[in-house]
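Exercise 7. Predict the structure of AbgT family transporter from Corallococcus carmarthensis.
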Amino acid sequence: MAKAAHFDDIDVPGETKKKQRTPPKKKGMERVLDTIERVGNKVPHPAIIFVALIAIVMVLSHIFYKLGASVTYETINPDTHQVEQTTTAAKSLLTGEGLRFMFAGVVQHFMDFNAVGVIIVAMLGVGVADAAGLVGALIRKLVAVAPARALTYILVFVGILSSIAADAGYLVLIPLAAAAYLTVGRHPLAGLAASFAGVAAVFTVNILIKPLDGILTEITNDAIHIMAPDRSIDLTANFWFSAASVVMLTIVVSLISDKLIEPRLGPYTGEKPATTGAKLSPEESRGLKFAFWGLIGVLVFFGLLALPPGAPLRNPETGALVGDSPFMNGLIVAITILFLVTGAAYGIGAKTLKNSVDVIKAMEKAVAGLGSLIFLLFIISQFIALFTYTNMATLAAVKVGDALEHAGLGALPLLVGFVLVVAVLDLIMTGAIPKWAIFAPVFVPLLMRLNVDPAAVLAAYRVGDGPFNAISPLNAYFALIVTFAQKYQKDAGVGTVVALMLPYVIVVFAVWIALLVAWQVLGLPWGLG
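Solution. The predicted structure, encoded as tokens:
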């Protein structure tokens, strides 16, 4: 994307001075990113790309199957917490069994792709809030009360914290951040990129305990017990490192956005909202008051269902609210209800929604707008299901892990090497839990023998599993980000998003590794207790 062009005066014979457009000279990094964007956007439609990848996987799976490729390794069963000896062999999609799996499983593969249901459910509530005008009013209210220079930092920080609500950051915060930037006259894609980096690239850490922490901690303890049955870590084992990472990466991501990404994008020349910079009208202010009381009502409702001992949204066996509980497992439903109620309340107060029919039409419009995305997610769901069936990702993970284990490296180089391996494999195996179930029983005991704290190994895994989420084509929400980008730049494609996110990935990855190394060398406490 070119920056705003400059104009120079030149003398033209027989004419008055005219302005001639001279393109600004771009620096090396800008040229590289422009090339990435240009090449990336020339590739076929993402649906065609994934169809081609399915064909490639089919051929490769048959080759590995004929070669008898297999691996034997120890893994931790997340359900039984037992270390199991597992042998995994390559499976071909071109055998009778493979062809039956492809043909009979098309519908089930799509139904099992959780991202589809999550997006549709979330948009039911967000669509009402958007149609009523609540989203726009909230953004303008945020812009009015937040210092202009702090806007990026606030959005990135909230994006990092949004991992407590799993997918909500992708579905709610990222489009809101783009709209907030547009409201203050900044390029919306810069807001999109900054919030996407916070949500995806820093997904594995938080200053709050989130559901993923419980599962990762359990798998880590099961790996520890291979060597030390009486030793364990708790949920806060990475608290200090996570908190420091949140603070540092909020600053780093925000600086990248303000100093590199937004200058490269230049001024936004697309359609701008008529309400940019305007104060809230009396109707909008009244709507926000109604929305506030709607918010209070929703919080009280869920508080009664979740907070008292024995409440129905707590885990019926353990009584836990955080971790494996109906409340956390259905958090996206709570968020949908929150937006639905507050959006409807705002619409009543601001008189933008007249009756229940308007609410239903807002939901229908929101879901109808997802048509092209749902089609793409259908293709992606087939690819992921087929790729998982072949076991090629597991074979790659185990083989690379074995090579690193037997490389004879010292404790610190091995820790850094482990981060690099996790990061590379994150491009083809995005699930944090399956990878850790494979790596934990190998690297936790190995590094314990080298006097490395198991909490350090878990922290290293968090570093490796984070940044590349922002450019992984197997990220279930990557296609959604492309769709968001196209709202502000019609020709935006995969290349546009990759070029936007690559600087974040590179810098965040390097800085985060440096923090991990410094923490280990200085012997700082990884967590509480």
